[in-house]
Design a protein that fits this description.
Elements (H helix, E strand, L loop, with lengths): L9 H25 L3 H12 L4 H8 L5 H42 L2
């Protein structure tokens, strides 16, 4: 048993990890959507993608995985990172646009 597939509970373990990744993604994306300003958005970025962030911790586990584990979990973990970055970029743009709209509305009121 080189790759761990013959171990009892291996498939269940893989499903559990995938479920954890999905839950983490939902949690981080909800935090991004709830960020009211760029400071809050930056706090979410640090908590998820920073040096000790939750997503960064998952990325660090890739090096210790067997090639088979990396093949099955790697795309999900990298997909999580990409989804967080995309959501963060979209939220940052939305916050900037909202701030600009508010500024224009204030200036045009005078």
């Amino acid at each position: 048993d080189v790759d761990g597939r013959d171990r009892p509970g291996h498939d269940e373990q893989v499903r559990l990890v995938m479920s954890d990744i999905e839950q983490l993604q939902q949690s981080v994306l909800a935090d991004i959507a709830a960020a009211a300003d760029e400071a809050a958005l930056e706090a979410v970025r640090v908590a998820s993608l920073g040096k000790s962030g939750s997503v960064s911790a998952l990325l660090k586990t890739l090096g210790a995985m067997t090639p088979e584990e990396r093949k099955s979990r790697g795309p999900a973990i990298n997909g999580l990172k990409d989804a967080v970055n995309a959501a963060r970029t979209a939220r940052r743009d939305a916050l900037k646009n909202a701030a600009l709209d508010a500024r224009v509305a204030t200036e045009s009121a005078y």
